[in-house]
Amino acid sequence: MLKRVITYGTYDVLHYGHINLLKRAKALGDYLIVALSSDEFNEIKNKKSYYNYDQRKLLLESLRYVDLVIPENNWEQKIDDIKKYQADIFVMGDDWKGKFDFLKDYCEVVYLPRTPNVSSTQTKQYLKSSF
Ligand code: C2G
Predict the structure, then answer these.
(1) Of the four listed, 1, 61, 70, 79, which is most buried by Cβ atoms within 10 Å?
(2) Would residue 45 show up in a list of annotated catalytic residues for this protein?
């Protein structure tokens, strides 16, 4: 039986921490859906992404671990997404540990350890300081 995994995020300035997460998420099932934060939702999250939605989507769709990219437009869509896409497992990095336990009524919830010492913010800061 096809096991579907879903995860959410901004995925700006794609780095190996993101890849580690997506790789492990995919390994939990057969099909990985990434709900990618829209530019408008990033504003709600107070995140300014360097790459816009289409650019971030293109990068994710090029990855072998990702089967489908859908837009994340708000905080409230997760339950509907899980039903609509028949997700069996919801995965997030453990910086979100506990925050999405309410989804346990609809699917398995897995928090994976974050990859240390890498972040989009850190990368942007480094690039700013090196020119
Ligand atoms: N991540 C990780 N290790 C890092 C950086 C990020 O494992 N060094 C994981 C995060 O835990 C998350 C995913 O990579 O699961 C995407 O990270 P972000 O783009 O920062 O996601 P975020 O802005 O936290 O969006 O509705 C949920 C939100 O959209 C989550």
Answers:
(1) 70
(2) yes
